[in-house]
Amino acid sequence: MVVVVVVVFVVAVVVAVLVVVIMIKIIIVVVVVVVVVVVVVVVVVVVVVVVVVVVVVVVVVVVVVVVVVVV
């Protein structure tokens, strides 16, 4: 009877430890995925802002050159 109780307790502890380890691994994976998504979004936003600024600068330069050449 005591052996059965000890075996059940040991199995319960092992299962609990395995569940905790699996949950920690899942949390780590989720955190890594969230960090990667945030970095990708930030990079995309920075690239879009840089492209918009470059386009605006090019348009302004072209307009100034056209105005200077025409006038």
Automatic annotation (TrEMBL):
GO biological process: transmembrane transport
Cellular localization per UniProt: Membrane
Cellular component, GO annotation: membrane
Residue ranges of the TM segments: 6-28, 35-68
Chain ranges of the ABC transmembrane type-1 domain: 1-71
Topology term for the membrane: Multi-pass membrane protein
Keyword check for Transmembrane helix: yes
InterPro entries noted in UniProt: MetI-like (IPR000515)
Record key words, sorted: Membrane, Transmembrane, Transmembrane helix
UniProt name for this protein: ABC transmembrane type-1 domain-containing protein
Lineage: Eukaryota, Metazoa, Spiralia, Lophotrochozoa, Mollusca
